[in-house]
UniProtKB/TrEMBL annotation:
It comes from Cephalotus follicularis. One of its GO terms (biological process) is lysine biosynthetic process via diaminopimelate. CDD domains: ASADH_C_bac_euk_like, VcASADH2_like_N. Pfam families: Semialdhyde_dh (PF01118), Semialdhyde_dhC (PF02774). This is aspartate-semialdehyde dehydrogenase. The lineage of its organism: Eukaryota, Viridiplantae, Streptophyta, Embryophyta, Tracheophyta. It catalyses: L-aspartate 4-semialdehyde + phosphate + NADP(+) = 4-phospho-L-aspartate + NADPH + H(+). Residues 1-20 are annotated as: Disordered.
Amino acid sequence: MAAFTSNKTHHFLTRKLTTPTRRPLKSTRVRMSLQESGPSLAVVGVSGAVGQEFLSVISDRDFPYRSIKMLASKRSAGKPLTFQGRTYTIEELTEDSFDGVDIALFSAGGSISKTFGPVAVGKGAIVVDNSSAFRMEEAVPLVIPEVNPEAIRGFKVGMGKGALIANPNCSTIICLMAATPLHRRAKVTRMVVSTYQAASGAGAAAMEELELQTREVLEGKPPTCNIFNQQYAFNLFSHNAPVLSNGYNEEEIKLVKETRKIWNDMNVRVTATCIRVPVMRAHAESVNLQFEKPLDEETARDILKNAPGVVVIDDRASNHFPTPLEVSNKDDVAVGRIRRDLSQNGDHGLDIFVCGDQIRKGAALNAIQIAEMLL
């Protein structure tokens, strides 16, 4: 996810992603969020897509704070930013940015996190990092609050020292929100995931290019290909992450490794194929599960209906199942197409289809939920 965006890109992002379903940021939220007893916050990469979503989630969930620093690159420094009725000045990210900060929310890319994350920790801040920089480090918890909250048991603001906590990859979060409740009941031994990932995963500039290409193709013009090296509109292609020597790309390997770490199970077999599709926002995933214990589809449906952060959309009669549009700007991950895998004997396999907002639960919401656990 691109961290720092131009004014043009930011306006595009705001225009494209604001829908009537988002609750208005009422003035009462200012009084409820700004609390002297709350922690001091820093948002790193505040001008980027996820940085902006951090602020939306803070407002939507009435996250308490006594102060907040808006941090970004030198290019964005000095620009005004209005949040909850107050006007802030975006500050340039430096080593001095974390003095007195309790919780630092990072979404500025791996290189920024590697440079400034340890600096923030050294100043006593608890860093919740949205990049891949620290996810696979053994000492760094990789957390989805609904899935493995025990990974940060004992982590609290005011514990006297800083710490690093990693946000998983968006595809991993969306997948495991649905797979984990079933895993707890019947134990997943093998999982096959095919993802259909939106432009939002590549940042606001990619979303802007998809809109531009759509116009160009409809007008018979050659498409502009600055973000991706091939036509995106009316097309789909293998995820643009670098391809490794084994033929998997980095996005696919993240799903494999992160699932094993989050589930604390190095023996679970995971394979993935990640595809970029011309959808503006929210990822979709087809997930095939093989279980150690039998689990029938009706029991699975009941488990998912009662799972936190999950909504079931599974109407076979009207052929209505989750779509990216339905989950855009929504907190919950939607699950449908719940059915027995006919290729496996008995009730030892299920297929499900999952959709989740990549910027919301796949990034900003998950990070704020982690921050809530630190209070």
